[in-house]
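Practice problem 4.
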């Protein structure tokens, strides 16, 4: 049941190695699926050694959100390889962590960065995820298909029932990122970038608030009826008076897991999605996203074939400019400082 007396969340910004700040938050910036086992081992050790909790008897909510950096590595890292790395970490949790509800959040649609324009956005996008940006990769639409395949791979892993063999442990897919798109701004002249930090890639404080709200709402929605995208008019929902627990694959009314295919499970085109959400969810999603689907099919402005090299030069020039300005500031301060033997 919902318990407001939550312990273990991080209390400030800082390195994950600073335990006084990070507490039980073991997330590491830039991590990929291959790092999840190490993070899981770190989490288990912290929980076992923290005197504020009873490791064996306290219930735990664990959230894993991984995959964007795997996609943005711009390699041939397949959905099967990605799911295998996630499975190894989840297997470890299943084997060693008692009384745990694990949220497995689907990877975000990284190709949405195409809606964020401007020189600095392009610089950071080239550094963080060039293959998802049309200016740098003519095959950028393949990244959307790869993201979809990652979603389906995690679904098949979890819906197999692999983690529903105990009464005190489960893993639940939370799909709120599957169809979360950047909405238009208020005057309709562009896109709302308020969810993003100045690097046009990571979430802002507001963006993190939206993610937390969407995650919470997914947790109290039955499997098969979960929202697959965030919308600006969403609010924080309350648990139903008739059911005060988090929904799982076993307690969601009317839910039946799909049987995994013996053939290659990963589809080639995300437009052929026939996943688990019911007809009502599809109709609601269609109402929200018909216009969005048309926008996704449009071509975004492309600078030219030399954009990648141009951005690299710009990054170097900016770095040189910053270093030069810093040097002048240091020199000015040194010249204005009183002599060492001055009485003033």
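Answer key:
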């Amino acid at each position: 049941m919902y318990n407001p007396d939550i312990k273990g969340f991080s209390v400030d910004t800082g390195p994950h190695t600073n335990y006084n700040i990070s507490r039980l938050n073991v997330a590491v910036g830039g991590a990929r699926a291959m790092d999840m086992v190490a993070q899981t081992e770190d989490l288990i050790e912290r929980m076992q050694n923290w005197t504020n909790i009873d490791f064996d008897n306290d219930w735990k909510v664990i959230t894993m959100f991984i995959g964007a950096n795997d996609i943005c590595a711009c390699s041939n890292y397949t959905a099967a390889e990605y799911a295998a790395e996630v499975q190894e970490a989840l297997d470890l949790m299943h084997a060693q962590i008692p009384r745990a509800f694990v949220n497995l959040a689907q990877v975000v649609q990284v190709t949405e960065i195409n809606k964020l324009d401007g020189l600095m956005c392009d610089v950071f996008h080239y550094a963080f995820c060039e293959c998802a940006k049309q200016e740098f990769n003519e095959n950028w639409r393949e990244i959307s298909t790869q993201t979809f395949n990652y979603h389906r791979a995690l679904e098949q892993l979890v819906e197999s029932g692999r983690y529903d063999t105990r009464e005190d442990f489960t893993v639940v897919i939370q799909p709120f990122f599957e169809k979360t798109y950047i909405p238009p701004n208020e005057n309709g002249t562009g896109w709302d970038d308020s969810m993003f930090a100045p690097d046009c890639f990571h979430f802002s404080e507001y963006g993190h608030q939206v993610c937390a709200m969407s995650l919470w709402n997914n947790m109290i929605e039955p499997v098969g009826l979960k929202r697959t995208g965030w919308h600006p008019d969403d609010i924080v929902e309350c648990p139903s008076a008739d059911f005060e627990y988090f929904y799982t694959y076993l307690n969601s009314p009317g839910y039946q897991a799909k049987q995994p295919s013996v053939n290659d499970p990963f589809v080639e085109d995300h437009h052929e999605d026939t996943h688990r959400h019911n007809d009502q969810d599809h109709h609601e999603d269609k109402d929200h996203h018909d216009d969005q689907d048309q926008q996704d099919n449009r071509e975004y402005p492309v600078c030219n074939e030399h954009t990648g090299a141009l951005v690299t030069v710009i990054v170097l020039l900016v770095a040189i400019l910053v270093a030069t300005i810093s040097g002048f500031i240091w020199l000015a301060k040194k010249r204005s400082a009183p002599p060492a033997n001055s009485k003033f």
